[in-house]
Specification:
The chain has about 120 residues and is mainly β. The chain has one helix spanning about 60-65, and strands spanning about 5, 10-15, 20-25, 30-40, 45-50, 55-60, 70-75, 80-85, 90-100, 115, 120-124. The N and C termini lie far apart (about 40 Å).
Length: about 120
């Protein structure tokens, strides 16, 4: 079975940057897409961005596009989420998830394999 493990979170100050990693192991046979989600305390988990098998990118809105960059290194079975100029509202647990196939829709129910998440805490 495929397993996903996130890393790279931590405690940062507003304005800092982080690069989160999502490493897939096990039966990582393609094609598959990967999405990043986040869930803040007391809020519903939301999808942030997704990347397809060929590197095509979808991001949820312009506010995300301005500061979030998703990328993929298929040779390393790794997907990254680069977050710049972190804001207080970015504090959340960030998860990656995968779906089989070529497409990377911003539809949470499409993603069926999840990692354990990595915590991002932002302070001023």
């Amino acid at each position: 079975q495929v397993m996903l493990v996130e890393s790279g979170g931590g405690k940062v100050q507003a304005g800092d940057s982080l690069r989160l990693s999502c490493v897939a192991s096990g039966r990582t046979f393609g094609p598959y897409a990967v999405a990043w989600f986040r869930q803040a305390p007391g809020k519903v988990r939301e999808i942030v961005a997704a990347i397809d098998w060929n590197g095509g990118i979808s991001e949820i809105d312009d506010s995300v596009k301005a500061r979030f960059a998703i990328s993929r290194d298929s040779a390393k079975n790794t997907v990254y989420l680069q977050i710049s100029d972190l804001k207080l509202e970015d504090a959340a647990r960030y998860y990656c998830a995968m779906k089989p196939g070529l497409g990377a829709p911003l539809i949470p129910s499409s993603y069926s394999v999840w990692g354990q998440g990595t915590q991002v805490t932002v302070s001023t």
